[in-house]
Design the sequence.
């Protein structure tokens, strides 16, 4: 028995490298109530599918116990904490999280970004990985695919994201993309590395929630394959209010469209 295992090892092809890992980036601003539960659910989901993973939490100057929660879980889970001294906004937080992820990733790894508010279901990561392994470079968890399900989202937020979809699909069509604004996505690590090489820190240079759209606009110039999978959004699980400032996000998104569409 031992001899046959040895023989197998000796005949392992030289090109075979260990399977890729998943690096999960969580932008977090005052998420102490949700983050612990999300970390547990992430660990469960990764464990169930025997996926090797690491988590990078970027605490964006939270004034609550967000950093403390990460510290607690870091004793038993592969979680790293990065901190901003002051609140810098979602764009800078996602940029720093992606940079840290790329720094520890190999080209085989997959980087997943999701909200830290425990409304995105971690079980979907397995599907997103599968779609990347099937050939996609970027996978978006989308509210606009058959099988998606949204629970607890207020009417005005549904309307806002529908309008955003209509507008962005018209002005910046990207094959395979309907949901431009959802914060739950998976990227090949090497795609992110290439994007940082090309754009530097300007890869993510929008401060607010419109950074999600801008990332796609930057990536669409890199000749990539975009795919979507249906999202189950459990907004009913959200503790406290959304951090999105609706009027500001609309104004900044329109400014972004004008800049990117008419001024290059
Ligand atoms: N870094 C950072 N993260 C933020 C900020 N505002 C929101 N977030 C995070 O961005 C994600 C999206 O915010 P959320 O309130 O869930 O927005 P919604 O789901 O669209 O209502 C969550 O993980 C928040 O913790 C901010 O000012 N800075
Ligand atoms: Mg959210």
Sequence:
């Amino acid at each position: 028995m031992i001899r046959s295992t040895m023989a197998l090892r000796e005949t392992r092809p030289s090109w075979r490298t260990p399977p890729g890992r998943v690096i999960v980036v969580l932008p977090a601003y005052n998420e102490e109530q949700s983050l612990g539960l999300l970390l547990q659910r992430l660990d469960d989901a990764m464990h169930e599918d025997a996926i090797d993973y690491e988590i990078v939490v970027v605490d964006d100057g939270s004034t609550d116990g967000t950093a403390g929660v990460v510290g607690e879980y870091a004793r038993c889970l592969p979680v790293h904490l990065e901190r901003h001294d002051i609140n810098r906004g979602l764009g800078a937080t996602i940029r720093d999280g992606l940079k840290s992820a790329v720094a520890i990733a190999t080209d085989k790894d997959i980087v997943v970004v999701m909200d830290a508010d425990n409304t995105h279901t971690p079980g979907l990561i397995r599907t997103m990985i599968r779609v990347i392994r099937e050939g996609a470079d970027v996978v978006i968890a989308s509210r606009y695919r058959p099988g998606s399900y949204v629970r607890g989202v207020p009417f005005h937020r549904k309307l806002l994201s529908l309008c955003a979809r209509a507008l962005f699909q018209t002005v910046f069509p990207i094959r395979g993309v309907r949901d431009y604004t959802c914060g739950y996505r998976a990227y090949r690590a090497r795609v992110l590395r290439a994007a940082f090489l090309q754009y530097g820190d300007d890869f993510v240079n929008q401060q607010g929630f419109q950074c999600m759209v801008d990332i796609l606009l930057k990536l669409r110039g890199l000749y990539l394959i975009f795919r979507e999978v249906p999202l189950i959004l459990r907004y009913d699980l959200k503790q406290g209010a959304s951090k999105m400032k609706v009027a500001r996000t609309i104004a900044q998104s329109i400014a972004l469209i004008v800049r990117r569409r008419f001024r290059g």
